[in-house]
Here is the input.
Amino acid sequence: NAGVTQTPKFQVLKTGQSMTLQCAQDMNHNSMYWYRQDPGMGLRLIYYSASEGTTDKGEVPNGYNVSRLNKREFSLRLESAAPSQTSVYFCASSFLDSGETQYFGPGTRLLVL
Amino acid sequence: DQQVKQNSPSLSVQEGRISILNCDYTNSMFDYFLWYKKYPAEGPTFLISISSIKDKNEDGRFTVFLNKSAKHLSLHIVPSQPGDSAVYFCAASWRAGNMLTFGGGTRLMVKP
Here is the structure.
């Protein structure tokens, strides 16, 4: 049981490049989430998917898109990366869609030059 | 405007003593509160939670206290151990919603 896995672990991009962060969970959870963590800001929700086939914006969605590919997988895409998107990105999942306990992946560290 | 605040960015305590981490919130709709622990280069892991119908929840060395009138919660770790050294995030949600709102985190250092 791997829990929540994320790829890649680390990525360097140039301004304007695009990339997709991948997330998968094997806990049969309904809901999945993408957060970014910046120093002193805690974790801020970018997008979430309450169930397969649905996605909703979180607190900081600008510059990102998401795809809930199936129940297991939830990807985050940066179409045109900006230095302000330098951050650590965490994917999480939960069984219920009521904001209860979420289980996090190990994170992707992204540097945009 | 941060709805969940952890005003102490860091805390240092001696091994064996009590660690008290504090968290304040402003949104009276929040009815469920959680604490997460995060080691470097790892994702946050769930530690303990409390519903707004309770004022205390205990799990081994960890106790969370909730003061609804003050919109304040705290995490007590007794006794503190060096392995408890990590960043602790408090988070809040309401039952009808999907989102956890996190505080900025407190770095706890437990000295041997």
Q: What stands out?
A: Residues 84 and 112 of chain A are 8 Å apart (CA to CA). Chain A touches chain B through 27 residues (CB under 8 Å). Chain A is about 0% helix and 50% strand.
